[in-house]
Specification:
The complex is a heterodimer. Chain A contains 9 helices and no strands. Chain A is mainly alpha-helical. Among the domains of chain A are: 79 residues, NADH-ubiquinone/plastoquinone oxidoreductase chain 6, subunit NuoJ (Four Helix Bundle (Hemerythrin (Met), subunit A), Up-down Bundle); 34 residues. In chain B, helix 4 runs parallel beside helix 10 and helix 10 packs across helix 11. Classes of the chains: A mainly alpha, B mainly alpha.
């Protein structure tokens, strides 16, 4: 009973906040609704017993991606009235995309009805392991069976990261103060100050 | 606790519901009391280090000071700036407070005293603490005022930066313990140091990670020397500038609940949680929660001590420390620790 209730609660909230993401006038409100949608889909993941994925969803999407998103949206001065001005012009394109998406969903559901693909291997190693935690079974699969694919994904991400850094990195040419903390810490009073006792009227030579 | 309520003649669902509710209250109410008291302790420690008296008027030794402050704040008027985004402005302190309380669900106070003994406990804490940035960002933006906004931007960047290195440090602990469950992490530390000392800090590879974790937890909770979000010389009072009355108090309570959480995490992850500090049979006579709270308050004292002695960082120094020092250091230690564990056959 409580599962059904929780499922409908999360599902309704996901869909409602998804709708609000699109319809909200203020871009910041939009992002906040999107975050609510992420959070509730994490709840759905917990319901199907994928607690690891649920936590990752919250950590990665809500905790990092959406924060940066919010960050950018808050700082940009987006004029949404101007963005909406092209609504009628882009309407046919939007309808076309919606139709394609609908066709895909329809095809997917039809294919599922016709008998879903068997994703597990014949010996059952692809099926969830009972009595083992999410993390352990995921780890066994990723670092065992799909090791090379997993490593390849990692390398692609690394290359993408380095590429992004190279593209945005501009060496600073200005001679403006660069702080070297080691140098500052190792500086002694003797290096910086001089003690002299000049005779009267002679002054100090620096 | 569910069994107890079932024995009173309730069905399983009702017993579970009542037991969970009772558990939540049993954590949240003492936590609020603890927050009130550690605010007092914080001010007293700070005063003592500055050779002042600190709060000493309300109640014996000023013990009731926090409650008096709470009452004062409760009776104040909630002011909403006319230019503020009202809904988000009011939602922000509620989110801060809720998130600060939610993380306590998985904290093991002793072997049995834990509300949700879940497999992904540590990930849950990481997830919840990554949510706490929203309260700050939302309040800063919704106030529609310069200084809160600057403060919110600083807070967001700071918390994300330090969460990265905290994540890697947690990975080190998890590698050694072999589990994400907080109770099992505590148990894995039993007799870790030559079978005598309970705690991962007694380990040449994990001790540096504890130091980094402690400093990162100062940054994560925006305590001195990393309290750039509330740098009063630059930002008035940071993201809470426009808040008054209970909405301000909720920020305050949430902040201290987060600080206590970080202290208790230090104790659980590196100092053996509810285990006694050394493996000696008579020490187990003392209930585990006493050990845990003693360790937590020790760390809170360290937090206050740091607050009273260390000057504030500059913002670029803060970012440098997070990204150029802690992140590479913790990455190297992940490799070192996993290499050591593989070499010694820890996983076999």
């Amino acid at each position: 009973m409580i599962q059904t209730f929780a499922f409908y609660l999360f599902a309704v909230l996901v869909i409602a906040s998804g709708v609000m993401t699109i319809t909200a006038r203020n871009p910041v409100h939009s992002v906040l609704w999107l975050i609510l949608a992420f959070f509730n889909s994490a709840g759905l993941m917990v319901l199907v017993g994928a607690e690891f994925i649920a936590m990752l969803l919250v950590i990665v999407y809500v905790g990092a991606v959406a924060v940066l998103f919010l960050f950018v949206v808050m700082m940009l001065d987006i004029d949404f009235a101007e963005l909406r001005a092209g609504f009628m012009k882009n309407f046919p394109l939007g309808i076309a995309i919606a139709l394609v998406l609908f066709a895909e969903v329809w095809l997917g559901i039809g294919a599922y009805r016709a008998g879903a693909l068997e994703l597990g291997t014949p010996d059952g190693s692809g099926a969830p392991l009972l009595g083992e935690s999410n993390i352990e079974s995921l780890g066994a699969l990723l670092y065992g069976k799909y090791l090379f694919l997993f490593e390849a994904a990692g390398i692609i991400l690394l290359v993408a990261m380095i590429g992004a850094i190279v593209l945005t990195h501009r060496p600073t040419k200005s001679a403006r103060g660069h702080q070297d903390i080691g140098k500052q810490v190792s500086r002694r009073p003797e290096d910086a100050t001089v003690m002299t006792q000049p005779e009267v009227g002679k002054g100090v030579e620096l | 606790m569910t069994e107890f309520f079932q024995s009173l003649g309730m069905s399983y669902e009702w017993a579970w519901g009542v037991a969970t509710l009772a558990g939540i209250l049993l954590i949240a109410l003492p936590l609020m009391l603890a927050v009130a008291m550690i605010i007092y302790v914080d001010r007293k420690v700070w005063a003592a280090i500055n050779l002042r008296r600190g709060p000493n008027v309300v109640g014996p030794f000023g013990l009731l000071q926090s409650f008096a402050d709470g009452l004062k704040v409760f009776l104040q008027e909630t002011i909403i700036p006319s230019a503020a985004n009202k809904g988000i402005f009011l939602l922000a302190p509620i989110i801060t407070f809720t998130v600060a309380l939610a993380a306590w669900a998985v904290v093991p106070f002793s072997a049995e005293m834990v509300l949700a003994d879940i497999n992904v406990g540590l990930l849950y804490i990481l997830a919840i603490s990554s949510l706490s940035v929203y309260g700050v960002v939302m309040s800063g933006w919704a106030s529609n005022s310069k200084y809160p906004f600057f403060s919110a931007m600083r807070a967001a960047a700071q918390m994300i930066s330090y969460e990265v290195s905290i994540g890697f440090i947690l990975i080190c602990v998890v590698l050694w313990a072999g589990t994400f469950n907080l109770n099992e992490i505590v148990l894995a530390q039993k007799g870790h140091g030559f079978g005598i000392v309970n705690g991962y800090f007694f380990n040449l590879l994990l001790f540096p990670m504890w130091v980094v974790f402690f400093i990162s937890s100062l940054a994560e909770t925006q305590r001195v020397p990393f309290d750039l979000t509330e740098a009063e010389s630059e930002l008035v009072a940071g993201y809470q500038t426009e808040y008054s009355s209970m909405s301000f108090a909720l920020f305050w309570l949430g902040e201290y609940a987060n600080i206590l959480l970080m202290c208790i995490l230090n104790a659980i992850l590196f100092f053996g949680g509810w285990l006694p500090p050394v493996e000696w049979e008579p020490l187990y006579m003392v209930p585990g929660i006493v050990w845990l709270l003693l360790k937590t308050f020790l760390f809170f004292f360290l937090f206050s001590w740091v607050m009273a002695t260390v000057p504030r960082y500059r913002y670029d120094q803060l970012m440098r420390l997070g990204w150029k020092v802690f992140l590479p250091l913790s990455l190297v230690f992940v490799v070192l620790i996993s290499g050591y564990l593989m070499y010694t056959g820890h996983f076999a």
